[in-house]
Amino acid sequence: MEQRVATSLIMTLNEKKFIESALLSEIRVDGRRPFDYRTLTITFGSEDGSSEVQLGQTQVIGFVTAQLVQPYRDRPNEGSFSIYTEFSPMADPSFETGRPTDIAIELGRIIDRGLRESRAVDTESLCVISGKLVWSIRIDLHIIDNGGNLVDAANIAALAALSTFRRPECTFGGEDGQQLIIHPPDVREPLPLIIHHLPIAVTFGFIGKENTMVIDPTHYEEAVMGGSMTATLNTNGDVCAIQKAGGEGVPHSVIMQCLRIASVKAADITNKIKNSVESYNTERSLRKVKRHNPSTVVVEFGQQGCGDVAKHHMERLNLGSDESSVISHSDDVELGRKLIENDKMEKRNITAKRFGGGTATWDPYSRGVDGNALRASLASRVATPPEIHKEEPKQEKQNETLSYQQSLVHEVTKIELQTKQPKTLKDAVKPRHKRRNKLMANSSPS
């Protein structure tokens, strides 16, 4: 009521008479017919449970949240929901911050009655533990711009936000199976609310001495109308609630006419809401990231990585055995070429995108191996002899290490040259002659 008084002080008498005289000719100031709705636009935010409704110049944003609370004693198996409205002075100069005004309280009650009395939302599905924990749904409605008929716009915003809201899934786990686990959205897909039907609020205004009836009144028409009535219906034609906020009396025949018109408008608005929600769900499914079980991902990539590591490890063992028997240089080159080809094929199949936190598949020994480089690396990896004196100069240590490495390389090369020559029976019995000569040499001095 404060809003209407503040607005009526701004409008002049000629403006009021012009609106009333135009309605006698079934013409409204914005060009609509008496029973025409303004253009309705429904959009959704990036998060689930947020909506924005544009009805002409009226703009309302709805946002739905949920939290676990204790249920009421008389309804231990049912969840609850509440509606909060916020009127900003930016939307209308007559709105004030702080204490809610009468129009704010009336707006919240109309929407709450339409949802609660009709049981549009299944509150029993919000129960987690009977008598202990239930989900409490909170609907916040923010008035961004007041262009008239805030009740209808806020009701559509609340229904659209409820249709796209999803609550986290809860399960029981732990050692005793009694621990409540709330799964985040990246682990399990959230659950939507169970909505049986959509109660649509349709507001009628009565203007002038003749009580000319209009639907979806604008901000200026609200300033001159003598009374209003809001009827909440669903697509089945069921009357969920009726709100008559004082003013001029309305006969029974006019109320029945309003209900028939509201039933048609409710069906049209319901189709618009469902189409908008369906398109939003389609876009959400397209941009939704595919979720996998973390343990499955680890096992899958772990098995692949272990297989690759085992494969390279076997190749390294084969290479080591070949080197221990001093393979020829041509065999080294051929084996290195095969290793390089296998490494290229594995790099094509295993990319960085497939890395999922499992065992790493990178192997530093996947390149080709050269015999000369291998002999040099083996010589360089040999541990230096233990130091006798800690205060020995560094230069002498380096010289000893270098001479030791050169002797090892010389011995390896000598063995390789010997193995390349064809072996005979004489070579097989040679160690026995050496031992005999050694024994004779040792016994001769004595």
From TrEMBL:
Query: GO cellular-component terms in the record?
Result: cytoplasmic exosome (RNase complex); nuclear exosome (RNase complex)
Instruction: Quote one Gene Ontology molecular function term.
Output: mRNA 3'-UTR AU-rich region binding
- Give the GO biological process terms: exonucleolytic trimming to generate mature 3'-end of 5.8S rRNA from tricistronic rRNA transcript (SSU-rRNA, 5.8S rRNA, LSU-rRNA); nuclear mRNA surveillance; nuclear polyadenylation-dependent rRNA catabolic process; rRNA catabolic process; TRAMP-dependent tRNA surveillance pathway; U1 snRNA 3'-end processing; U4 snRNA 3'-end processing; U5 snRNA 3'-end processing
Show the SUPFAM superfamilies listed in the entry.
Answer: Ribonuclease PH domain 2-like (SSF55666), Ribosomal protein S5 domain 2-like (SSF54211)
User: Any idea where this protein resides?
Assistant: Cytoplasm; Nucleus
Residue ranges of every copy of the Exoribonuclease phosphorolytic domain listed in the record: 37-168, 197-263
This protein's UniProt keywords:
Cytoplasm, Nucleus, RNA-binding
Locate the region Disordered: 413-446
Source domain of life: Eukaryota
User: Among its keywords, does the record have Cytoplasm?
Assistant: yes
Please verify whether the record's keywords include Membrane. no
Q: Which PANTHER family does the annotation name? A: EXOSOME COMPLEX COMPONENT RRP45, EXOSOME COMPLEX EXONUCLEASE RIBOSOMAL RNA PROCESSING PROTEIN
UniProt similarity note: Belongs to the RNase PH family.
What is this protein identified as? Protein ECERIFERUM 7
From what organism does this protein derive?
Lactuca sativa (Garden lettuce)
